[in-house]
Amino acid sequence: MLAVNAINVKYGPIHAVRDVSLSVETGEIVTIIGANGAGKSTILKTLVGLLRSGTGEILLNRESLSSLSPAAIVSRGIALVPEGRRVFPRLNVLDNLLLGGYGKPRQQIGETLSQVFEMFPRLRERRQQLAGTLSGGEQQMLAIGRGLMSRPRLLFLDEPSMGLAPLLVQQIFETILTINERGTTILLVEQNAHMALAIADRGYVLEAGTIVLTGSAEELSGNPQVRNAYLGEA
User: For the whole model, what pTM was predicted?
Assistant: First the structure.
C-alpha cells in the first residue's frame, strides 16, 4: 500500500531523516518507535507533504506522492492525526469534526459523523463545547475523530498517547485497534513502545533519523536492544 524508499529530510544544516525506507501493507498496523527527537514526526510530515524529501520516493498504491500537495495527498486517502492534537480551540467540537470532512459529499459527512460519535460518545455529548475547553483525553478523541472524517484508507497517528493518563492511553489504543479492525490501515508513531508493540503487526526502530531495527512486533519486543532502550527492561 505505502512504500517509502530512501527519503532524506533536512532542517537547514540538520540532517533529520537519513535514507529511511519503510512499507505498510493494506490492513496492517505498523509502528515507528524511538526517542524524542529521533525524527519520527518528521517522517510523517514528509509523507503528507508538509515537508519535502531531497531524495527518494514515496508511493501509495504505486502512485508517487512526492510532488503532490498536502490537499492532494489527503484526497488520495491519507489522513494525519498530528502530535499535540492541534484542534481548533475556538471552534466547537462539531465544527472541528466538520472541517475534517471538508470537500466530502454532505451525505457521506453525515454518515461518518455518526460513526465518529458512535466511537466517541463523549464527543456527541460535547459537540457544542469549545474544543479548547476539553480535557487532554477528549482533545485526542477529537483529533482522531477529525482525522476519520475524511474516510482515510491509511491513517497516520503521531504520538497519540502523549500527555495522557494511563487509563486514557489504554482507551486510545483500544480505539486504534477498533479503527484498524473496521478496515483502516495505520502507521503509528509512538514513544510508548510497550503499547505500540502490543497492537502493531510490525515495527521500525528509529535512532537519530536512521532506521536501526525492523521486524515483527513480537521480534522487536523480544530484542534485547529494544527491551533495554525502549521497554525499560535489562
Answer: 0.89
User: For residue 61, is it left (φ>0), alpha (ψ between -120 and 50) or beta?
Assistant: left
SS3 track for 28-89: CEEEEECCCCCCHHHHHHHHCCCCCCCEEEEEECCEECCCCCHHHHHHCCEEEECCCCCCCC
pLDDT score recorded for residue 233: 58
CATH for the 1-77+187-234 domain, from 3.40.50.300, 3.90.650.10, 3.50.50.60, 3.30.1130.10: 3.40.50.300
Percent of the chain's residues with pLDDT above 90: 71
pLDDT band (50, 70, 90) for residue 108: confident
How many C-beta atoms surround the C-beta of residue 160 within 10 A? 24
What's the grid cell of residue 44? 510523517
**Quick one: which of 226, 215, 212 has its CA closest to 38?**
212
How buried is residue 183: exposed, middle or buried, by Cβ count under 10 Å (0-12/13-18/19+)? exposed
Gap between the Cα atoms of 76 and 154, Å rounded: 9
- Please give the angle made by the CA atoms of 57, 161 and 113, to the nearest 5 degrees: 80
